[in-house]
Backbone:
């Protein structure tokens, strides 16, 4: 038994000669909410399809819930809920009727307890009140939650959601986000893809960043957020003197303009970066007329733009 929900080694998926997924090593701890982040076309859906056994890998290994895939597919899949393409619902049937149809398609589900399972799944996603309403009257957020309900007709250890908030309005996005949070609070591991950093940042404990088929960063939100650089910005007419003092303190590559100097704070492994107040004191002692002093940190977004060479749509 491993404490990983998903593990891949050098996973590769090629379409003809193009590697849509190029040697990725995913490490998804059990109990995590793992944000699988990357711009459109970076290989997220292809990876997810391979994880679920919907497509075969060209190369590499996949383990889901501690078992090799696709070898143990039949044992693994009942424990995994997935929402990959928006599920097809009959618009003229109610939410509950649609779920009953999904449940009926599951050979292992007893007919007797069907209504109870459906009611429980609807309750889980907050749709009990809309159970009898026709799906065509559902909002997009409600439809997406119904899709998640369909994946929750059985108890699951792992939930895989491919861009579950794509196309949703802010209200629908909030609904799905809070649902993911509450599922995670129940102990379900959630692997959720997105091209929206802001979204993943709010719900995830772990992040993996895809860029052109490669996994370019992976870790806890804290590890990735904290790994960014920071800079000091000194507003002063004495640029050359300020640059000298900053260099003397070990700050890197001062950029001098007419009224300011910006220098990088070195990444400290032993925590001995100079404190801001010491930098200011040294500047003043060095005869620099300091008009302003700020420490600027790279945001997680700056990091991702640097990693993927691409901006994420933050607001859309
Ligand atoms: N069935 C397929 N045949 C050929 N190329 C594909 C196929 N599916 C995906 N691709 C290509 O693989 C790359 C990754 O696509 P995808 O996994 O859908 O990215 P994402 O989900 O991150 O937007 C893209 O270049 C896409 O065009
Ligand atoms: Mg996709």
Residues:
């Amino acid at each position: 038994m491993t404490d990983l929900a998903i593990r891949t080694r050098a996973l590769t998926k090629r379409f003809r000669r193009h590697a849509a997924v190029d040697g990725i090593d995913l490490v998804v701890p059990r109990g995590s909410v793992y944000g699988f982040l990357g711009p459109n076309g970076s290989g997220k859906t292809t990876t997810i399809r391979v994880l679920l056994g919907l497509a075969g890998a060209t190369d590499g290994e996949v383990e889901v819930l501690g078992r090799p895939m696709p070898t143990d597919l039949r044992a693994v899949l009942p424990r995994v809920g997935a929402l990959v393409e928006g599920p097809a619902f009959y618009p003229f049937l109610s939410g509950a009727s649609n779920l009953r149809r999904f449940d009926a398609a599951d050979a292992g589900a007893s007919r007797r307890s069907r209504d109870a399972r459906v009611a429980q799944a609807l309750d889980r996603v907050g749709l009990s009140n809309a159970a009898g309403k026709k799906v065509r009257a559902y909002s997009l957020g409600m439809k997406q939650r119904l899709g998640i309900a369909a994946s929750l007709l059985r108890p699951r250890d792992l939930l895989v959601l491919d861009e579950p908030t794509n196309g949703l309005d802010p209200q629908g996005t909030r609904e799905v986000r809070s649902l993911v949070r509450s599922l995670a609070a129940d102990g379900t591991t959630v692997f959720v893809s997105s091209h929206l950093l802001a979204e993943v940042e709010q719900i995830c404990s772990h992040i993996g960043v895809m860029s052109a088929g490669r996994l370019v960063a992976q870790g806890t939100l804290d590890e990735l957020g904290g790994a960014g650089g920071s800079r000091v910005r000194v507003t002063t007419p004495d640029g050359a003197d300020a640059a000298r003092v900053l260099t003397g303190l070990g700050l890197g590559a001062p950029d001098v303009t007419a009224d300011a100097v910006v220098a990088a704070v070195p990444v400290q492994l032993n925590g001995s970066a100079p404190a801001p107040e010491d930098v200011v004191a040294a500047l003043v002692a060095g005869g620099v007329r300091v008009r302003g002093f700020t420490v600027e940190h790279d945001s997680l977004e700056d990091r991702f733009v640097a990693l993927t060479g691409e901006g994420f749509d933050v607001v859309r």
Remarks:
- The pocket of magnesium ion (ligand 2) is lined by residues 44-45, 162-163 (CB under 6 Å).
- The two ends are 41 Å apart (CA to CA).
